[in-house]
């Protein structure tokens, strides 16, 4: 797992050093009878010399109360030269890995190289990805976490599982 995550971190470092286009994301409120939660649909376009991509996602904060995920996403890629679609990718998983790898990249540039502990604020869906990504760039021996909710919507058991996975890779 460290190899996969380490490769992703170095690939992102390389990608961030090249030219790309990325206009401001477009966010659209979705009207709903649920006045407590504000549902959103978003479009995030970007392109490089090789591909054009658009990530679309929904954010429905009330979904966990229905047993559903809060955010769902898809990424559609087109060939830059021909404009032909080349891939439709699960944007939720891609976002989890990419966000964690960017965080680890920042840590690799700003934290001590001998850092052995990580503190995660929040124990949601991103937490295991963050732990794995940071373990790819630092010799972690301990992962601490702070949860914000005292209900069934946080996932500390995932962190314990991934912590064991990290220690064995």
Structural class: alpha+beta
- The share of residues in helices is 25-40%
Cα Rg = 18 Å
Distance between the termini: 6 Å
The helix tally amounts to 4
What does the largest sheet look like? 5 strands, antiparallel
Number of strands: 7
Report the β-strand fraction as a percent range.
Answer: 25-35%
> Strand order of the main beta sheet, please?
1-2-3-4-5
Round the mean pLDDT to the nearest integer and report it. 84
What oligomerization state is this entry in?
Answer: single chain
Anisotropy-based shape: flat
Low-confidence segments, ≥5 residues, pLDDT <50? Answer: 152-157
Instruction: Write down the secondary-structure element order.
Output: HEEEEEHEHEH
Please give a structural write-up.
With 169 residues, this protein is α+β, with helices and mostly antiparallel strands. It contains four helices and seven strands; from the N terminus they run αβββββαβαβα. The strands form two sheets. It has a five-stranded antiparallel β-sheet with strand order 1-2-3-4-5. Strands 6-7 form a two-stranded parallel ribbon. β6, α3 (127-137) and β7 (142-146) form a beta-alpha-beta unit. The longest helix has 20 residues, at 91-110. Residues 152-157 have low confidence and may be disordered.
Quick gist of this model?
This protein is an alpha+beta fold and 169 residues long. Helices cover 35% and strands 27% of the residues.
SSE map:
Blueprint: H1 2-16, E1 26-29, E2 40-47, E3 51-59, E4 71-79, E5 85-90, H2 91-110, E6 117-121, H3 127-137, E7 142-146, H4 156-168
Parallel strand pairs: 6-7
Antiparallel strand pairs: 1-2, 2-3, 3-4, 4-5
Helix pairs in contact: 1-2, 1-3, 2-3, 3-4
